[in-house]
Protein backbone atom coordinates (compact mmCIF):
# COMPACT_ATOMS: atom_id res chain seq x y z
CA UNK A 1 0.00 0.00 0.00
CA UNK A 2 3.02 2.35 -0.14
CA UNK A 3 2.52 5.58 -2.07
CA UNK A 4 4.94 7.10 -4.59
CA UNK A 5 3.41 10.56 -4.17
CA UNK A 6 3.68 12.23 -0.81
CA UNK A 7 4.14 15.73 0.67
CA UNK A 8 7.59 17.21 1.04
CA UNK A 9 6.82 19.12 4.23
CA UNK A 10 5.16 18.22 7.48
CA UNK A 11 2.85 21.21 7.86
CA UNK A 12 0.73 21.19 11.00
CA UNK A 13 -2.17 19.13 12.26
CA UNK A 14 -5.25 20.49 14.05
CA UNK A 15 -6.31 19.75 17.60
CA UNK A 16 -9.28 17.48 18.18
CA UNK A 17 -12.51 18.74 19.69
CA UNK A 18 -14.17 16.52 22.31
CA UNK A 19 -17.80 17.27 23.14
CA UNK A 20 -20.12 16.30 25.96
CA UNK A 21 -21.70 12.93 25.26
CA UNK A 22 -19.09 11.87 22.70
CA UNK A 23 -18.39 8.19 22.14
CA UNK A 24 -14.62 7.69 21.99
CA UNK A 25 -13.13 4.49 20.59
CA UNK A 26 -9.48 3.50 20.99
CA UNK A 27 -8.08 1.31 18.23
CA UNK A 28 -4.68 -0.35 18.32
CA UNK A 29 -2.28 -3.18 18.94
CA UNK A 30 -1.14 -4.86 22.16
CA UNK A 31 -0.70 -1.51 23.94
CA UNK A 32 -4.46 -1.13 23.57
CA UNK A 33 -5.48 -4.77 23.81
CA UNK A 34 -3.57 -5.88 26.87
CA UNK A 35 -2.08 -2.82 28.50
CA UNK A 36 -4.91 -0.26 28.25
CA UNK A 37 -2.47 2.61 27.76
CA UNK A 38 -5.41 5.04 27.60
CA UNK A 39 -6.65 4.43 31.16
CA UNK A 40 -4.99 7.64 32.43
CA UNK A 41 -6.50 9.48 29.45
CA UNK A 42 -9.99 8.56 30.63
CA UNK A 43 -9.18 10.15 34.00
CA UNK A 44 -7.72 13.28 32.41
CA UNK A 45 -10.75 13.79 30.17
CA UNK A 46 -13.19 13.22 33.05
CA UNK A 47 -11.41 15.97 35.01
CA UNK A 48 -11.59 18.44 32.12
CA UNK A 49 -14.42 20.96 31.73
CA UNK A 50 -16.26 22.45 28.79
CA UNK A 51 -16.75 26.17 28.19
CA UNK A 52 -19.56 26.27 30.77
CA UNK A 53 -17.35 24.78 33.50
CA UNK A 54 -19.16 21.44 33.41
CA UNK A 55 -17.06 18.31 33.85
CA UNK A 56 -16.75 16.25 30.71
CA UNK A 57 -18.94 13.17 30.36
CA UNK A 58 -18.00 10.85 27.50
CA UNK A 59 -18.09 7.09 26.94
CA UNK A 60 -15.17 4.84 26.01
CA UNK A 61 -14.75 1.62 24.06
CA UNK A 62 -11.64 -0.06 22.70
CA UNK A 63 -10.49 -2.84 20.42
CA UNK A 64 -6.89 -3.95 20.12
CA UNK A 65 -5.19 -6.84 18.37
CA UNK A 66 -1.75 -8.07 19.43
CA UNK A 67 0.86 -7.67 16.69
CA UNK A 68 -1.38 -5.83 14.22
CA UNK A 69 0.08 -3.29 11.80
CA UNK A 70 -1.44 -0.03 10.58
CA UNK A 71 -2.44 -1.67 7.31
CA UNK A 72 -3.76 -4.67 9.25
CA UNK A 73 -6.04 -2.31 11.16
CA UNK A 74 -7.30 -0.93 7.85
CA UNK A 75 -8.19 -4.43 6.70
CA UNK A 76 -9.94 -5.18 10.03
CA UNK A 77 -11.99 -1.98 10.39
CA UNK A 78 -15.25 -3.86 9.86
CA UNK A 79 -14.74 -5.62 13.19
CA UNK A 80 -12.36 -3.32 15.08
CA UNK A 81 -14.13 0.01 14.48
CA UNK A 82 -17.40 0.03 12.55
CA UNK A 83 -19.57 -1.84 15.11
CA UNK A 84 -18.76 0.78 17.77
CA UNK A 85 -19.84 3.77 15.63
CA UNK A 86 -17.91 6.36 17.68
CA UNK A 87 -17.77 10.13 17.32
CA UNK A 88 -14.00 10.05 17.90
CA UNK A 89 -11.44 7.35 17.14
CA UNK A 90 -7.95 7.32 18.65
CA UNK A 91 -5.54 5.17 16.64
CA UNK A 92 -2.51 3.66 18.39
CA UNK A 93 -0.37 1.82 15.86
CA UNK A 94 2.91 1.79 13.99
CA UNK A 95 5.04 -0.40 16.27
CA UNK A 96 4.30 -3.48 14.16
CA UNK A 97 4.73 -1.90 10.75
CA UNK A 98 8.05 -3.61 10.11
CA UNK A 99 11.75 -3.08 10.70
CA UNK A 100 13.14 -0.81 7.99
CA UNK A 101 9.80 0.80 7.09
CA UNK A 102 10.46 4.12 5.36
CA UNK A 103 8.64 7.40 5.83
CA UNK A 104 7.17 7.12 2.34
CA UNK A 105 5.93 3.58 2.92
CA UNK A 106 4.31 4.51 6.23
CA UNK A 107 2.69 7.53 4.63
CA UNK A 108 1.04 5.20 2.11
CA UNK A 109 -0.14 2.75 4.77
CA UNK A 110 -1.54 5.43 7.06
CA UNK A 111 -3.15 7.53 4.33
CA UNK A 112 -5.03 4.43 3.19
CA UNK A 113 -6.14 3.79 6.78
CA UNK A 114 -7.39 7.36 7.27
CA UNK A 115 -9.18 7.32 3.91
CA UNK A 116 -10.93 4.04 4.74
CA UNK A 117 -12.19 5.45 8.04
CA UNK A 118 -13.38 8.68 6.45
CA UNK A 119 -15.06 6.79 3.59
CA UNK A 120 -17.10 4.96 6.22
CA UNK A 121 -17.90 8.01 8.37
CA UNK A 122 -16.82 11.36 6.88
CA UNK A 123 -17.57 13.41 10.02
CA UNK A 124 -15.63 11.21 12.45
CA UNK A 125 -12.88 12.96 14.41
CA UNK A 126 -9.56 11.14 14.41
CA UNK A 127 -6.50 11.30 16.65
CA UNK A 128 -3.42 9.42 15.45
CA UNK A 129 -0.94 8.55 18.20
CA UNK A 130 2.73 8.36 17.28
CA UNK A 131 4.73 5.15 17.47
CA UNK A 132 6.28 5.29 20.93
CA UNK A 133 9.85 3.96 20.88
CA UNK A 134 12.62 2.00 19.25
CA UNK A 135 15.61 0.21 20.65
CA UNK A 136 18.73 2.18 19.79
CA UNK A 137 18.60 4.29 22.94
CA UNK A 138 18.81 1.09 24.94
CA UNK A 139 21.66 -0.20 22.79
CA UNK A 140 23.68 2.95 23.36
CA UNK A 141 23.65 2.36 27.10
CA UNK A 142 24.22 -1.38 27.04
CA UNK A 143 21.07 -1.97 29.11
CA UNK A 144 19.21 -4.88 27.55
CA UNK A 145 15.63 -5.70 28.50
CA UNK A 146 14.69 -9.41 28.58
CA UNK A 147 13.16 -9.33 25.10
CA UNK A 148 16.19 -7.66 23.53
CA UNK A 149 16.90 -8.49 19.89
CA UNK A 150 20.40 -7.53 18.81
CA UNK A 151 19.36 -7.26 15.16
CA UNK A 152 16.23 -5.16 15.32
CA UNK A 153 16.55 -3.48 18.72
CA UNK A 154 14.39 -3.55 21.82
CA UNK A 155 10.73 -4.09 21.08
CA UNK A 156 11.57 -5.15 17.52
CA UNK A 157 12.28 -1.65 16.13
CA UNK A 158 15.23 0.71 15.91
CA UNK A 159 14.87 4.38 16.78
CA UNK A 160 15.57 5.25 13.14
CA UNK A 161 12.62 3.15 12.00
CA UNK A 162 10.43 4.56 14.75
CA UNK A 163 11.26 8.08 13.58
CA UNK A 164 10.59 7.22 9.93
CA UNK A 165 7.23 5.68 10.81
CA UNK A 166 6.22 8.71 12.86
CA UNK A 167 7.22 11.05 10.04
CA UNK A 168 4.98 9.06 7.69
CA UNK A 169 2.06 9.18 10.12
CA UNK A 170 2.54 12.92 10.64
CA UNK A 171 2.58 13.56 6.89
CA UNK A 172 -0.59 11.53 6.34
CA UNK A 173 -2.34 13.38 9.16
CA UNK A 174 -1.30 16.76 7.77
CA UNK A 175 -2.53 15.72 4.33
CA UNK A 176 -5.98 14.75 5.66
CA UNK A 177 -6.35 17.35 8.42
CA UNK A 178 -6.19 14.74 11.19
CA UNK A 179 -4.82 15.35 14.70
CA UNK A 180 -1.35 13.88 15.25
CA UNK A 181 -0.52 13.32 18.92
CA UNK A 182 3.25 13.11 19.20
CA UNK A 183 3.40 10.96 22.32
CA UNK A 184 6.86 9.88 21.16
CA UNK A 185 8.15 13.32 22.15
CA UNK A 186 6.78 12.74 25.64
CA UNK A 187 8.21 9.23 25.79
CA UNK A 188 11.71 10.65 25.40
CA UNK A 189 11.27 12.11 28.86
CA UNK A 190 11.22 8.66 30.43
CA UNK A 191 13.31 6.53 28.10
CA UNK A 192 16.54 7.76 29.78
CA UNK A 193 15.15 6.44 33.07
CA UNK A 194 14.78 3.03 31.50
CA UNK A 195 18.24 3.26 30.00
CA UNK A 196 19.57 3.74 33.52
CA UNK A 197 18.06 0.38 34.42
CA UNK A 198 15.05 1.80 36.23
CA UNK A 199 12.37 -0.29 34.54
CA UNK A 200 9.79 0.18 37.27
CA UNK A 201 10.39 3.90 37.77
CA UNK A 202 10.85 4.57 34.06
CA UNK A 203 8.17 4.01 31.43
CA UNK A 204 8.32 0.34 30.48
CA UNK A 205 7.41 -2.97 32.03
CA UNK A 206 10.15 -5.54 32.49
CA UNK A 207 9.44 -7.01 29.04
CA UNK A 208 11.15 -3.95 27.58
CA UNK A 209 8.33 -3.32 25.11
CA UNK A 210 5.09 -2.31 26.82
CA UNK A 211 4.39 0.73 29.00
CA UNK A 212 3.97 0.51 32.74
CA UNK A 213 1.72 2.96 34.58
CA UNK A 214 4.24 5.76 34.09
CA UNK A 215 4.48 5.08 30.37
CA UNK A 216 0.70 4.97 30.06
CA UNK A 217 0.47 8.36 31.74
CA UNK A 218 3.06 9.83 29.37
CA UNK A 219 1.19 8.50 26.32
CA UNK A 220 -2.14 9.72 27.66
CA UNK A 221 -0.79 13.19 28.41
CA UNK A 222 0.57 13.43 24.88
CA UNK A 223 -2.93 12.74 23.52
CA UNK A 224 -4.77 14.86 26.07
CA UNK A 225 -2.70 17.92 25.17
CA UNK A 226 -4.11 17.71 21.63
CA UNK A 227 -7.73 17.87 22.82
CA UNK A 228 -10.11 20.76 23.36
CA UNK A 229 -13.45 20.42 25.13
CA UNK A 230 -16.93 21.73 24.44
CA UNK A 231 -20.59 21.36 25.40
CA UNK A 232 -23.26 19.57 23.37
CA UNK A 233 -24.52 22.99 22.26
CA UNK A 234 -21.12 23.82 20.80
CA UNK A 235 -21.11 20.45 19.03
CA UNK A 236 -24.44 21.25 17.37
CA UNK A 237 -23.16 24.66 16.30
CA UNK A 238 -20.05 23.12 14.86
Stated plainly, the CATH topology is called Rossmann fold
Beta percentage is 5-15%
| The top level CATH class name | Alpha Beta
Structural class: alpha/beta
Across the major sheet, the strand order is 3-2-4-5-6
What is the number of strand segments? 7
Apparent shape: globular
Low-pLDDT sequence parts: 1-11, 135-155, 194-201
List its salient traits.
5-stranded parallel sheet; disordered N terminus; Rossmann fold; 238 residues; alpha/beta; 14% strand; two-stranded parallel sheet
Structure description:
This protein has 238 residues and is α/β, with parallel strands linked by helices. It has a single domain (16-237), classed as SGNH hydrolase (Rossmann fold), CATH 3.40.50. It has 11 helices and 7 strands. The strands form 2 sheets. It has a 5-stranded parallel β-sheet with strand order 3-2-4-5-6. Helix 5 packs across helix 7.
Question: How would you sum up this structure in a few lines?
Answer:
The protein has 238 residues and is α/β, with parallel strands linked by helices. Helix content is 39%, strand content 14%.
Task: Summarize the SSE layout with pairings.
Elements: E1 16-19, E2 23-28, H1 30-33, H2 39-47, E3 59-64, H3 70-75, H4 77-80, E4 88-92, H5 103-120, E5 125-129, H6 136-141, H7 159-176, E6 179-181, H8 183-187, H9 191-195, H10 213-224, E7 227-230, H11 232-237
Parallel strand pairs: 1-7, 2-3, 2-4, 4-5, 5-6
Amino acid sequence: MGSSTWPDSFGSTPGCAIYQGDKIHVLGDSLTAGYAWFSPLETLVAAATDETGTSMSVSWTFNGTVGISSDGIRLALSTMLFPYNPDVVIIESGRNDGAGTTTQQEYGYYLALLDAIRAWKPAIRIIAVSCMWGGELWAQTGVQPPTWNNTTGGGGMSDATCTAINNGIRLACAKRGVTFADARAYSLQWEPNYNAGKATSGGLTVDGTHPNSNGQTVMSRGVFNCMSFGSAAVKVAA
